[in-house]
Amino acid sequence: MAKAPPSLKVLVVDDDQAICEFMETFLRKDGFEVKTLSDPKAAPEEVKVGGYHIVVLDLMMPDMDGVEVFEKIRKIDDDVAVIIFTGYPSLETAVQSMKLDAVDYLQKPFNPDEFREVIDRVMRKKGLLRTPEENLHRVIGETIRRLRKDHGLTLKQMARRTGLSVSLLSQIERAESSASISSLYKIAVALDVPIKELFGEY
Fold it and tell me: Residue 127: pLDDT band by 50, 70, 90 thresholds?
């Protein structure tokens, strides 16, 4: 998946707190700034003031149904990308959602990879994708973090093994700093892997 820029904001509106928590964790891991709302009545005002790029909206909620919320959102912002997800899909709500220019209509429970593809499509359409170089930094950082945890190593232990600072290692893992070849070599040696393994699928 191509990566979102750090400023890309997502609002998740669902009365199910467990789904809100899952979506927040899932989207934050992919680099989004996320806010969740379990009260659908608060969503239009939040869209008005929040500067969101994407709204993920459940259709079946108490007090106010998702289509009604969607209509109110559209009156406030006709450009924000809205992704509908529902545990109770129907032709009627699908047609209503498409008329309001929903970017997609997904059935819960959804496949995370399918959801990422929808997000990718939204970001391409809006010109919000990260550059290949930024994406490479993310892949390297995530790979290093995974390998470090697989080895049961803390950042402090990695710092001792590599001679690099905890701060730099943390920045590399979070893709906030570009690692030099020398640094990557030291990290690969510390993790006992070929340096090419740090580049994931690149």
Answer: low
Q: Residue 197: CA atoms inside 13 Å, Cβ hemisphere, count?
A: 13
Same domain for 107 and 180, yes or no, is no
Is 2 inside a domain boundary?
A: no
Contact indicator for 185, 140 with CB cutoff of 8 Å = no
Same domain, 109 and 89: yes
Average pLDDT over residues 141-149: 94
Specify the pLDDT at position 1: 47
Total domains in the fold of the chain: 2
How far apart, in whole angstroms, are the C-alpha atoms of residue 118 and residue 102? 11
Q: Region 173-202: what's the mean pLDDT?
A: 90
Q: Which of 84, 101, 126 is the last residue of a domain?
A: 126
pLDDT of residue 21: 92
User: pTM (2 decimals)?
Assistant: 0.59
Q: What is the mean pLDDT of residues 138-161?
A: 94
Task: Kindly state whether residues 26 and 110 are assigned to the same domain.
Answer: yes
Q: In this structure, what token pair is assigned to residue 148?
A: 């470090």
Question: How many C-beta atoms surround the C-beta of residue 74 within 10 A?
Answer: 18
Containing structural domain, residue 145: 132-199
57 and 72, same domain (yes or no):
yes
> Rounded CA gap, 103 and 80, in Å?
10
Q: Give CA separation, 101 vs 37, 83, 84, 94, 96, in Å.
A: 21, 9, 10, 11, 9
50 DSSP assignment? H
Rounded to the nearest integer, the mean pLDDT of the chain is: 86
